[in-house]
Structures are given as structure tokens and as C-alpha cells.
Design a protein that fits this description.
Helix 4 runs parallel beside helix 5. With about 190 residues, the chain is mostly helical. The protein starts with 9 loop residues before the first helix and ends in a 26-residue tail after the last helix. The protein is extended and about 75 Å long. It holds the Pfam family Calponin.
Length: about 190
């Protein structure tokens, strides 16, 4: 857990401060309120880092959230407070979130939550899951996902694009590559 680690100093402390500065209490509060609405759990929805961490750190609420969105997604939720079991819960949540359509780049690593390394990435994951929840008939949070915008070009338009010559891109003002000998030494 985070309280068993030595305090960071030097570059590590500076890096951790930078990570923590990206954390948004407003988005965290919105995420907790959304979790409360879906799970019907009585949780404190304050967005401060301490509250956010304490509510989510064991992963049980996250697993119940996934099972409310898509019943049966997580078969076993560990109620034990042992570190390994809590991290199993968090891992199960992450796998189920990916299966529900959360992109891998918007998820977090287990230690980001369990060891309180990067709570901002946890908020990002919950916001992304909140957008996907609408696909399963649940309330959504965050900005609406973009709709598909397929463009169909005719053969004539495609041929016209192939006719563009390089001088139409812009000029290099007479510069050439003459005299550049990559890998060739000057012979005397």
C-alpha cells in the first residue's frame, strides 16, 4: 500500500508532484457520483484524492460497477483486504473494462490505484467507461463519443488526387541535395 512506501525525494518527488497536478477533483467527483448512481452504494462523493483513493483502493466497488453495467462480467469479487486479493479485483475490473470497449490507452495499471501512483489515470479510465456505459443502457458521463463519419470518394475524385504534383505542395526555394554524401568520406 502507499503508506508502506518510503517518501519520494528528488526527481521522483518532482515527477510525482507533476502527476498529481493533473488530477482533477471535479472529474473525480463526477466519476464517484456516477458510480453511486449506477451501483446504488452509499459512498462519499467528494473528489479529493484521499476520498477517491479510499473508496476505490480495494477494487470491490469497481467490480460491482462493472457487474451493474454488464451483469456477470466479473464472476468472483474478493472481499478480503489482503493486497493480492485487492489487486486481483482491480485487474478483473481492468480486463472487464477493456471488454466493454474502453481503449487500452485509457486504462491504468493496477499499481496506479493500489499504490496510489497515478489517480488521474484512474479518473480517465472511469470517464472512458462512463462514455461506454450508454451502449449498455446505463447513464453516461463525460463528453459524447464521436459518431462515425465515413467518407466515400468517387473514382474520379481519387484519380484527381493522384494528379497532384510535388511542386504544388510548396517550394524548397532552389535548395537541392547535391553534394550530400551520406556514409561516403571525402577522398583526397
Amino acid at each position: 500500500m502507499a503508506n508502506n512506501r518510503a517518501a519520494k525525494s528528488g526527481f521522483a518527488a518532482e515527477a510525482q508532484r507533476k502527476i498529481n497536478s493533473k488530477y482533477s477533483e471535479e472529474l473525480a467527483q463526477e466519476s464517484l457520483e456516477w458510480i453511486r448512481d449506477i451501483t446504488k452504494e452509499d459512498i462519499k462523493t467528494s473528489g479529493d484524492m484521499d476520498n477517491f483513493y479510499e473508496i476505490l483502493k480495494d477494487g470491490t466497488l469497481l467490480c460491482r460497477l462493472i457487474n451493474e453495467i454488464q451483469p456477470g462480467s466479473i464472476k468472483k469479487i474478493n472481499d478480503s483486504k489482503m493486497a493480492f486479493k485487492c489487486m486481483e479485483n482491480i485487474n478483473a475490473f481492468l480486463e472487464a473494462a477493456k471488454n466493454l470497449g474502453v481503449p487500452a490507452q485509457e486504462t491504468f495499471q493496477t499499481v496506479d490505484l493500489w499504490e496510489r501512483q497515478n489517480l488521474n489515470s484512474v479518473v480517465i479510465c472511469l470517464q472512458s467507461l462512463g462514455r461506454k456505459a450508454g451502449n449498455y443502457g446505463k447513464p453516461c458521463i463525460g463528453p459524447k463519443e464521436a459518431d462515425k463519419n465515413v467518407r466515400n470518394f468517387s473514382e474520379e475524385q481519387l484519380r484527381a488526387g493522384q494528379g497532384v504534383i510535388s511542386l504544388q505542395y510548396g517550394s524548397n526555394k532552389g535548395a537541392t541535395q547535391s553534394g550530400i554524401n551520406f556514409g561516403n568520406t571525402r577522398h583526397m
